[in-house]
UniProtKB/TrEMBL annotation:
This is Flagellar biosynthetic protein FlhB. Required for formation of the rod structure in the basal body of the flagellar apparatus. Together with FliI and FliH, may constitute the export apparatus of flagellin. InterPro entries: T3SS_substrate_exporter, T3SS_substrate_exporter_C. Belongs to the type III secretion exporter family. Keywords: Bacterial flagellum protein export, Protein transport, Transport. It comes from Alteromonas gilva. Pfam families: Bac_export_2 (PF01312). Coiled coil: none annotated. Transmembrane segments: none annotated. Gene3D superfamilies: secretion proteins EscU. SUPFAM superfamilies: EscU C-terminal domain-like.
Amino acid sequence: MSKKSKRAVGIKYNEAEPSQAPTIVAKGYGDLAEAIIASAKENGVLIHEDPYLSEFLTTLDLGQSIPESLYYVIAELLAYSYLLQGKVPQSWRDAMPGIDDKV
């Protein structure tokens, strides 16, 4: 993908409001996409590259919640990112004692 067609989308999940869907907080193409990615890296935000997912997410407006059809995809990405950071939700600890030893 050329720099011109590169795109980036930032989503935010509010841990304090787990019943709310993640929302679009940044999006852009080309140089703006590069800046979004650079800012994410500088701030320790994990990055997932998926051209099909980003193509769809760029059609959403800033502040818009992700559609229900993407809940499972985004939930899997969020869960994986939490594990990469060594975070284990309390509900997982309750359901699977000893999970902290495996992460």
